Amino acid sequence: xxxxxxxxxxxxxxxxxxxxxxxxxxxxxxxxxxxxxxxxxxxxxxxxxxxxxxxxxxxxxxxxxxxxxxxxxxxxxxxxxxxxxxxxxxxxxxxxxxxxxxxxxxxxxxxxxxxxxxxxxxxxxxxxxxxxxxxxxxxxxxxxxxxxxxxxxxxxxxxxxxxxxxxxxxxxxxxxxxxxxxxxxxxxxxxxxxxxxxxxxxxxxxxxxxxxxxxxxxxxxxxxxxxxxxxxxxxxxxxxxxxxx
Length: 245
Known about the structure:
By secondary structure, the chain is α+β, with helices and mostly antiparallel strands.
């Protein structure tokens, strides 16, 4: 049932993105309505998560005669698509936005001489739904949003192609605020490009002890206190009326 639920969520997200792209390129937007689609890169200083990964790489809880054959890379960079819809009023824009950022990591421990190896892998994904306001004058602007974040840790099991959620489908949700600068470039009356360097501040910390349990380094109460702060850059293509400031 869990695997079927995960696959259903994937299908809904894919269908939603396909519908958005059709609307983005095929429909004429009203003179003040802008749609946008783009890509986001984000840096996260995940101290607790990377401490867990380092414990795994240091060989904590290895079986006898086992060594770390392939260390797991630290988790610092996420990337993924973003879409949005905004209404322009003069120099102001009010809108709703969504982006999905993800990354995956894997490592292997075992004994080469005996031909034994155990791989651990995990996939981290966070979906952010935002509402906010932007102000642009000329080529420069500022913006801010209130965000609802839904994150998930997943892994792959033997003989199963789909990723499954760790700990019976537990998701990690939290609110945050995002502030950003806007570098705006107008191409035509109905087409523009924006670069948005941003910082995201979470309202609370999330529990990542499930990752510690997956990597067999659990037992530390500090593993439930991860601050998911982000420093990122969003690139967006804007479709709709573009003012000539």
